[in-house]
Specification:
Elements lengths: L14 H27 L2 H27 L14 H30 L6 H28 L3 H30 L4 H28 L5 H16 L5 E10 L2 E10 L5 H18 L4 E10 L2 H4 L12 H4 L3
Parallel strand pairs: 2-3
Antiparallel strand pairs: 1-2
């Protein structure tokens, strides 16, 4: 098995924690700014944007906690670490975005039936537009840092911030149309469109959360793993391999594989070959902390395991193993 990863840098200097702290502070600013704009205008579209910001504060608070928790060291109760909380965080963020969308739909329907026409729209447009620009900068930074550091929590939060930004820009356009045309029904219509937009983003977050929690296969990692192992088999350093498994949480990967060795190979030689394979696998993913567990078996595998491998089906057995 590969050695444990090196210690992470202090949180106060880690870009992931810096941008998350900025996200949390900005979320509070957004809420107060949008509530001020709503109080001055009475616009349902601006209110829908403020409702989304309430949800965003809750989601960002959870994301900040999850980011901290995911970087706690592995312990006796959690030997695989705490990285999977990232998927829970993304799924929860998606769920509360759905709740915000439903509330927006309800508010828009009420206003369409019996709402008062909004006023002082110029001020509301200026405040909402300025806040949208702030979110554009913040959301872009969160997504970039999250992708560079393989931090799903930051990517999810950044996409939520960018959704908030597009929501605000949509509100600016809609309220601008109300201001220019005097057609007050456009205001609740824009609010409903805002709800549809954030529902779409929520579905994407929930889908990614489910895939991560269920350890769904990620082909972009499977292909290089297979190519690496097949290269060692082609060089006759191993007879074949099977039972390949891999999963990922944030910037940590786990790889498991059974290596089939020539029956007369000395155990020390087999260990050197397995170590070389583990080093080659680690080199495939330099941005990740990679844990590899390799199991050495003789090529006469059927005689070594007459009862099979506990009934587990290996999706990579047929094209890769030479038993």
């Amino acid at each position: 098995m590969t050695p444990p990863p090196t210690a992470a840098p202090p949180m106060r200097r880690d870009p992931r924690f810096i941008v998350m702290a900025a996200s949390l502070a900005t979320a509070v600013l957004m809420l107060f700014g949008k509530l001020t704009a709503y109080a001055m205008t009475g616009s349902t579209a601006i209110l829908s944007d403020a409702i989304e910001s309430v949800v965003h504060i809750l989601a960002t608070s959870l994301a900040a906690f999850s980011l901290w928790w995911s970087h706690q060291e592995a312990c006796e109760r959690h030997p695989y670490g705490h990285g999977k909380i990232a998927y829970f965080s993304a799924g929860f963020e998606g769920a509360i975005i759905v709740s915000a969308a439903l509330l927006i739909f309800y508010t828009a329907a009420q206003d369409l039936v019996s709402g008062e026409p909004p006023g002082r729209l110029g001020v509301g447009i200026a405040i909402t537009g300025g806040l949208a620009l702030v979110n554009l900068v913040l959301g872009t930074a969160l997504v970039r840092v999250g992708r560079r550091r393989n931090a799903l929590i930051l990517v999810a939060n950044g996409k939520h911030v960018l959704t908030d930004m597009w929501t605000s820009f949509g509100v600016v356009v809609g309220v601008g149309l109300v201001w220019a045309t005097g057609l007050h029904w456009i205001d609740p219509l824009v609010a409903a469109l805002v709800g549809c937009n954030i529902l779409w983003e929520a579905a994407a977050l929930i889908r990614k959360s489910v895939r991560g929690l269920l350890d769904a296969v990620e082909p972009e990692y499977t292909r290089p793993l297979l190519a690496c192992l097949e290269r060692f088999a082609a060089d006759d350093r191993i007879e074949g391999f099977h039972q390949l498994r891999h999963r990922r949480a944030n910037d940590t990967m786990w790889v498991e594989v059974h290596l089939l060795m020539p029956g007369r190979m000395h155990v020390s030689h087999a260990h050197r070959v397995a170590t070389d394979i583990e080093s080659a696998i680690q080199a495939l993913f330099p941005a990740y902390q990679v844990y590899i567990t390799s199991h050495i078996e003789p090529a006469t595998h059927d005689r070594a395991h007459p009862a099979g491998h506990t009934g587990l089906h290996d999706p990579y057995d047929e094209p890769t193993a030479t038993e």
